[in-house]
Design the sequence.
């Protein structure tokens, strides 16, 4: 998470790591830049993460209330971060072609 925070800061985002995520909020990181608000649920596993449906619904509701775009951020050991939009989490479509690398993620936000 800390490496992702630093990356987003270098891209001009104001970022916050949310302590106790999962208890207070479903997002681990909140990133804001010029009116764009992003809620990120972060996972670092060797295998592609699977999120329980209730967690997806919590993230969706939280993002709707906050006016945020929701993403699952995943980093496998010694790999770059990949991002899956909340829409794909809701539809349970986490196939490889739906994951975005950092460049695609940033372009999607503009």
Sequence:
């Amino acid at each position: 998470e800390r490496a992702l925070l630093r990356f987003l800061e270098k891209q001009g985002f104001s970022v916050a790591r949310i302590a106790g995520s999962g208890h207070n909020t479903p997002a681990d990181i909140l990133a804001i830049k010029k009116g764009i608000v992003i809620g990120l649920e972060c996972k670092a596993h060797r295998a592609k993460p699977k999120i329980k449906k209730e967690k997806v619904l919590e993230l969706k509701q939280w993002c709707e209330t906050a006016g945020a775009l929701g993403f699952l951020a995943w980093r496998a050991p010694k790999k770059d971060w990949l991002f899956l939009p909340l829409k794909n989490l809701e539809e349970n479509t986490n196939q490889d072609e739906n994951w975005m690398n950092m460049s695609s993620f940033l372009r999607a936000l503009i």
